[in-house]
Every structure is written in structure tokens, then in C-alpha cells.
Amino acid sequence: MNLYKPDLMIIRDIIQETPDTTTFRLQFKDPKVAESFQFRAGQFAEYSVFGEGECTFCIASSPTRLDYIECSFKQFGRVTTAMRRLNVGDVIGLRGPYGNYFPLEQMKGKNIVFIAGGIGLAPVRCIIWNALDLRDQFKDITIVYGARSVNDLVYKRELEDWKNMDGVKTVVTVDPGGETPDWTGEIGFVPTIVEKVAPAGENSVAIICGPPIMIKYTLPVMQKLGFTEDNIITTLENRMKCGCGKCGRCNIGSVYVCKDGPVFNYTQLKALPEEF
Amino acid sequence: MEEKHITGEHLTAFASGLLEKGYILISEAPDGTGFTAVKDGASVNMNTAARPTKASFKQQVFPKTEPVFHFHKTVDDVLLFDPLPHTQKTVVFGARPCDAKSISIMRKVFNWDYKDEFFNARADNTVVIGTLCKYSDETCFCTSVGLSPSSTDGSDLFLVPLDDGGYAVKVVTEKGQQFVSENPALFGEAKAGADAVAATHPGPAQKFDAAQVRTWISQNFDHPHWAELGQTCLGCAQCAFSCPVCHCFDIVDEPDSFLEGRRMKNWDACQGGMFTKHASGHNPRDDQGKRYRQRVSHKFSYYPERFGEILCTGCGRCTRGCVVGVDIGEIAAGIAGLA
After folding, report:
1. Which fold has domain A104-235?
2. Which of A5, A50, A248 faces B248 most closely, judged by CB atoms?
3. Global confidence as pTM
4. Could you report the predicted ipTM of this complex, rounded to two decimals?
5. Chain A residues within 8 A of B117 when measuring between CB atoms
6. Do B117 and A3 touch (CB under 8 A)?
7. pLDDT digits over A70-84, tens only?
8. Alpha carbon of B108: minimum distance to chain A alpha carbons (Å)
């Protein structure tokens, strides 16, 4: 088995989330691969544009909806720029799924608060839909999502869906100065908003994804609310190439983020050397 | 371990026989650059009194660059082709213990979960004939990382040159045993004397206790010593490229045209500033001190913790090649001194 040879996927739909962020809806070209492909919320994959290279993104769709997978990416470098040039019907490569996943079993029967910033909503969206598709197995569900400006909010249509859904509290916020005149959501940084709307820490799990600075200031808030360290869960987004514990790029100490992560709880995070 | 004896002439005949059977034979190039293929049995270089070559034989199992697949685009599809599997049998002749050990160290990371068939195909098709090392200088420190000039670890056959011009042959693995069985006329009864020769080549004096180094590293991630070490390093990565066990790599596309090309697996090194840089611009190892800490810690602490092997064979190549004189043996000794 060639570890580095991807499976081929056809782009079925392209959604322009923001001026620089795009979502692809993808389907395997080979129906046999599609049938055998399985993943769990939180896992990632290596996406490739042939002739340009590979890029690492999470799988942003839910494993409860297996007829397609989705990924969202921001245009930054060579591969993501090439991806933006692709059209519906074009073929890209995918290797994966790789890495560990969100501890769904640990979350069952508890209050869940999902906290995301910017494009960090992509991995959280995967577990949000996963949880919503199994709604009766969880208690209160709260979603807190923030971006720099109204323009930078991704999955806007789904934010509306979640707001209108029974039994889900959805709070969307933009950084001060990022609001538009007709903005009706919150204005403020994610940690401040979380402190106002999150459930008490007892019997609750927090899933946090976003820029390092947001995570850094949200962690103390979660502890103040009484969340135990095992129930504060986040993901690390180190640079990767192979995705499968060989190339030596994503290491933090002896931990391979691509194999032992990307999902870590706060207890595990604290045991790592501070190099992420 | 079974022992045999082979005369000098028989060793040449053995090498010639392997060439006839289609094996590629590589040994240290006389010009000191690296390992090269030899054309006849008599050219096999068994002289270990000379300084080791600049490059190890790492490329034999882990090439500088190799295609992992080829792609061909059509109007509405992409075709992918596997490269031809590596089936060429190769014998490394006269590998010193610090080189011979490299395959078994790297085999761990290339197989601990997912299996890297590119490495495995090459490693499985390689036979290592190790030799007692008669060289030692101030950069060598094999004796500090659990090896010695006469350690057989990693070799399939291990030769110790005797005073009679022949070699004592230690049969270390099944691959080695097969060679001996196939050539009953060339490998004779064991002769005494190998231990006496080995005793005259004890290797460099031990520079540090690797366990002490590991303990210190695991407790001193934020020690200012790391920043000091980073002040000297230029980040050129020659140390990683000359290292027999450094195995970090990059995956890069190499298009021939808009329609065709290949994806390559290329050597990479943790000393470069871009190695860990995120798309956002954030870089977990944003200065040379942090990168040097990674190099030393990976070798003496992280890899032993994860895979049970020190990621260093004490060959001294990185030090000999360093343009600014960074000496990893001295650094490890310094760290052991801090412990």
C-alpha cells in the first residue's frame, strides 16, 4: 500500500464562505472507496492539487452524513490558491482520515459548549452536526462563535439554522469595530462572551477551536466557570506534511500531533512542552 | 553468535560472486565523499582506519529525493501511477558500526503505525556487512550512545580484520547466515584472535552518560542554555543531511508541465526557519535556539522516549562538517555536566 498516494475526489459543490474562505463538497470518484471510507469528528486529511502540492485541513462535515465530505480553507499559500482556481467537477486528491477525534462518548449525557473563532469553526462544525444529529444524547448545547468582522463569519447559513433550532443556544459575536450597522449579534471578544453565556462547568464539556490567542484567553474563563481540565477540549493545528507520524514536522516533544492529536484535552496540553 | 573465518582472497571472491548474482555493492568511496558502487570484488573498501566519508549510506534506504507517485491529468480526470517497486538487492560492504546501526533505528519511525513501503522495500533489500572501526578522532562518540568500534548491532555479517590478512566473520542475522550458507567454500572454520583485535580498538573515551542527558533535557525545556546554543548555529542543516539517522522529510510536487509530474519525498531538516511555520505566520520554533533544542532533544530525549533508541550513532559527521564548529558530542557532554 502506497502511504503517500491519495484517493481521488470530485468537487460537487463550491461555497464561497467569505471573500477568502471557501468550502468544497467532495465525493470519492471510486464508489468502492466511498463505501469503505469512515472517519470520526475531529480527524483531518491531506488534500492535494496535483502539480501544486498537499495541504492539511480537518474534515468539516459530520461523520453522520457520509455521502459526501466537506472541507473549508482560507486562501494563503500555493495549494490553497490553486484550490481557489478549481471548479465544480474538477478532481482533487485526499489522504486520510488521520489523527484522533473528539471524545464523543465522554460528551454524552453532558452539557456541551462549542467555542470557535474564525476558520476554527470548521473542525467544531463537524462535531456540532455530529452532536445535533444525535441530539437526545446530550443535555444543553451552546454554540459561541466569533470572528474579526461580520465579513469573516463562515457557515453563515448554518449559523442561522442553529439559531432557529430548538434546544440549541447560538451566540455569534464579532470583534469590536468589526460590526456592520445592521449587525444584531454580540460585539466583543470570544472569551468575554463565553463568560456570559456558557453553562456552569459541572457536568459540562467545552470544545474550543480558534486562533492561539483566543484559546489562550478562553482557557482561564473555562476554569473560572468550573470546567474540569479533562472536559476542556481543543485541537492543535501544527504544520504537517505526511500526516501519519513519519516526517517529523508536527512534533511537540515526543508527541506527534498528527497521530496523538490533533484533539487534546487541557490536562494533556499542560503536560506538553510549550512549543505550539 | 556463529563465527566463521574468511581470507582476504576469499572476501574478494565473495564480493565478485555477489556482483555476478546481480547485487549492487556499495562501500566507502576512496575520495571520502560517500558510499559508491564498486565494479569488481577487489575494489571493495574495507579500510576503516581512514576518516569516515562525509555522507553515510542513509541514501540507500532513504534517498535524498524520490517519487512517491506520478500523475497525469486529462481533460476531466487525473491518473496516478505508483513508482516501480524497489527490488534491487544491495550489499553495503565495510560499514562501520555507527553507520550499520542506522537502518534499525530509522525502521522504528517508518513502521510504528503506518508502514512506509518506500523505506521498507529498500531496507529489506539491503544487506549490511559491518566492519570493526579502526578510526577515532575528537568528534567521535559512539561509546557514549551505546555502540563501540566492534558492536555488531545493525550488521548482518560483521567482519573483524585479523593479523593473518583474513577476517573473523560474525554471523549476526538470518540474511548474513544465508550468505554464509550459499558460499561454503569461502567461509572457513573460525579462528581465534578477533577479541584481541577488538581490544586494541576500544574507540573514543566515553564523553557523556546518555541517560543523564535525557533526564536533563526532559526537565529543562525552558533552560537559557538552549538559547545560547542557538547563537552559534547558522541553520544550514548540513548536520541533518550528513546524519545517518535524521529522517525528517518534505512532500513536494514537481510538475513537468501543466499536465504531468510527480510527487516527491525530499530530505528536510528541523534547523530551517520554515520547517514548522504555520500558514498564519505563527511559528512554534521561531528562533534558532528553539530549533537547536529540537535537534538535540529529538535525538537524546524524544526519540528514546517514543521508540527506545537514541537517534544518534556518535559518528561525528555533523561536527566534522559544521562550518561554525558546533559539536553535538560536546553539547551533550555539557548537558550531562549540568545534570
Report:
1. Rossmann fold (3.40.50)
2. A248
3. 0.93
4. 0.90
5. 1-3
6. yes
7. 999 999 999 999 999
8. 10
